[in-house]
Amino acid sequence: MKYKLTIACILILAATTAVHADVWPTLNPGGMKHIMIGFENNAVSLHLDSADAGPLLMENFGNTHIPPADVLDGKGYNDQYGWLADGLIAPPAGGAFWIRSVVATPRLEIYEGGMRMMRDTHTYAPIFGTSGSPDAWKWNGTMTHHWNAAVLPGFYEATFEVYIGDAVTGVALPEYAADQVTLSWNYVPEPASALMCVMGLAIVVRRKRIARA
Ligand SMILES: [Cu+2]
After folding, report:
1. How far, in Å, from the CA of 162 to the mean position of ligand 1?
2. How far is the CA of 184 from the centre of ligand 1 (A)?
3. How many CB atoms lie under 10 A from the CB of residue 129?
4. What's the gap in Å between 117 CA and the centre of ligand 1?
5. Which residues pair with 149 in a beta bridge?
6. What pLDDT is attached to residue 198?
7. Interval between CA 79 and ligand 1 midpoint (Å)
8. Beta-carbon neighbour count of residue 117 at 10 Å?
9. SS3 at position 183
10. How would you classify residue 10: left for phi > 0, otherwise alpha for psi between -120 and 50, otherwise beta?
11. Is 40 helix (H, G, I), strand (E, B) or coil?
12. DSSP 8-state assignment for residue 27
């Protein structure tokens, strides 16, 4: 009986983690959280538009994704944070807004996103040091929601600096002040299917005990 149930549990786990092939990544519920980027008097300023400062939930929805979004396969991820202009801002001539990862939890992965509803247009290219990519990423001024992901459950955070850099090389232009923001995520894997198996075993053991009594 126990043996049969174990087999059943393995089958249940396999079924509940079975993948839906080739979809675009799922938008995490809970809405967008923007890092508002201001630029005034030669200084960049950052603030969150949400009182909820995180950590946000990374989720593994159990899907496989259409390439190039398949970099997210088998991972927890979250795309709620987005970089957004705070009003009408423009970089100085020859300069651009750059965002660089100052420090981050090891094994945090970040892939290039874009407008949230246009998932099929994102490059999903590794950025901010992921897979050996450069630490700095050039922001073009439009709302951009990157894909923040992890293979292993846990707490992740990253500190970013937004600065004015050379439009081509990204080298910081010292006459402009930069600002920093720290974002965080929690990856807690979905326990429902595993829990169902444990409960199923407990019920069987209890029934056996009752039958013996
Ligand atoms: Cu947004």
Report:
1. 17
2. 17
3. 18
4. 9
5. 77, 109
6. 47
7. 9
8. 9
9. strand
10. alpha
11. strand
12. P
In the reported structure, the alpha carbon of residue 115 is separated from the centroid of ligand 1 by a whole-number distance in angstroms of 7
**Which of the two residues, 129 and 196, has the higher pLDDT score?**
129
**How many Å apart are CA 155 and CA 64, to the nearest integer?**
23
Over residues 48-73, the pLDDT tens digits come to 998 877 899 999 999 999 999 999 99
For residue 68, cis peptide bond before it (omega within 30 degrees of 0): yes
**Burial readout 177-196 (b: 16 or more C-beta within 10 A, e: otherwise):** ebbebebbbbbeeeeeeeee
Domain boundaries along the sequence of the chain = 2-212
Render pLDDT for 154-175 as a digit per residue (tens, 0 to 9).
999 999 999 999 999 999 999 9
Residue 98 CA, ligand 1 centroid: distance in Å = 18
Bridge-based pairing state of the strands 136-139 and 95-104:
antiparallel
Distance CA 80, CA 122 (A): 15
- pTM equals 0.81
Percent of the chain with pLDDT over 70: 79
> Is residue 12 over pLDDT 70?
no
